[in-house]
Amino acid sequence: MLRSILRSSTSNASRRGFASGASPERKVAILGAAGGIGQPLSLLMKLNPLVTRLALYDIAGTPGVAADVSHINTGSEVVGYMGDENLGKALEGSDVVIIPAGVPRKPGMTRDDLFNINAGIVKSLCTAIAKYCPNALVNMISNPVNSTVPIAAEVFKKAGTYDEKRLFGVTTLDVVRAKTFYAGKAKVNVAEVNVPVVGGHAGITILPLFSQATPKANLSDDEIVALTKRTQDGGTEVVEAKAGKGSATLSMAYAGAVFADACLKGLNGAPDVVECSFVQSTVTELPFFASKVRIGKNGVEEVLGLGALSNFEKEGLEKLKPELKASIEKGIKFAHQN
Ligand code: NAD
Ligand code: LMR
């Protein structure tokens, strides 16, 4: 067991020195840390100055990833944990748990095709979260997000630990893509672009609200339709380009790091931390829905409404509801039956 745990060489003194700054100590655990997303995400979280302890968990490969990442001269301590028997130690004391564990798509597959394998993985990891760090903010990356978030909620409810403020489906990659594609078409500085993306995280359930995009640009209806489709199909674009070698990993690691950073800032009391996320919601009649969310010391402080929608977006919203509803119900049913 000892061999499977690898501590970083960061000295206690340097860690204490770092932790004595303005930010409180924060532990982040990454479950699936040796994977395509997990590795670059581990790197990016090691670079985040708000992280003091980084726990890297996977069923295999974490000693190597932890040894590698731990040599980076930032203040956080890195510990790698491998195998089921070490999951509890990885989770204990975590403030934020990021879950990119599970299988990715291959060309021709939908995200829902991953359900049979990933639902069970998410269920067992969430069972452990309920036991070892029930107060952590959970950032769910594993697909299909439209079902894995409801599964997590049901697992936490069963364990008596569910707090809807602490469970987030990570849809940041949709926002990252919408910003990039919009900036390219509108010929504006991508660093200044904001685009809310609402709904869910699969195909037509991904609804970018380009009518609310800033800086404003005079795009034609056809251009908006094309941008919307490209955002909805962004994941598939990467899956096809990778031709059997998985789905988005690098852009997802970036997006996951942006979202985890927002959670840490919110926990630390930073004002006006707003990101889109798939959360428990009353914004529509569906029990979970992605929209802008204000994140604070307790997690979700406020789920923001959709704002004014164009007719095209209103149609998109109505079209996505049946599919999103079915995916949510599938997750809930799985959690009850297994
Ligand atoms: P990957 O196969 O490269 O890595 C997955 C990792 O999970 C592997 O290292 C594997 O060992 C690990 N794993 C499997 N079972 C585990 C368990 N029980 N506990 C801990 N770790 C476990 O896959 P990837 O490319 O990193 O993608 C991971 C998931 O993220 C997929 O489901 C993918 O569809 C999803 N994803 C989501 C988004 C999003 O926007 N939310 C974006 C990209 C990918
Ligand atoms: C993405 O949007 O890139 C992810 O959900 C992975 C996928 O399967 O498309």
From TrEMBL:
It catalyses: (S)-malate + NAD(+) = oxaloacetate + NADH + H(+). The keyword Nucleotidyltransferase does not apply. Residues 171-334 form the Lactate/malate dehydrogenase C-terminal domain. Gene3D superfamilies: Lactate dehydrogenase/glycoside hydrolase, family 4, C-terminal, NAD(P)-binding Rossmann-like Domain. It is found in: Mitochondrion matrix. GO terms for molecular function: L-malate dehydrogenase (NAD+) activity. It comes from the Eukaryota. The active site is at H201. Residues 1-14 have a biased composition (Polar residues). Substrate binds at R105, R111, N143, R177. Pfam families: Ldh_1_C (PF02866), Ldh_1_N (PF00056). Homodimer. This is Malate dehydrogenase.
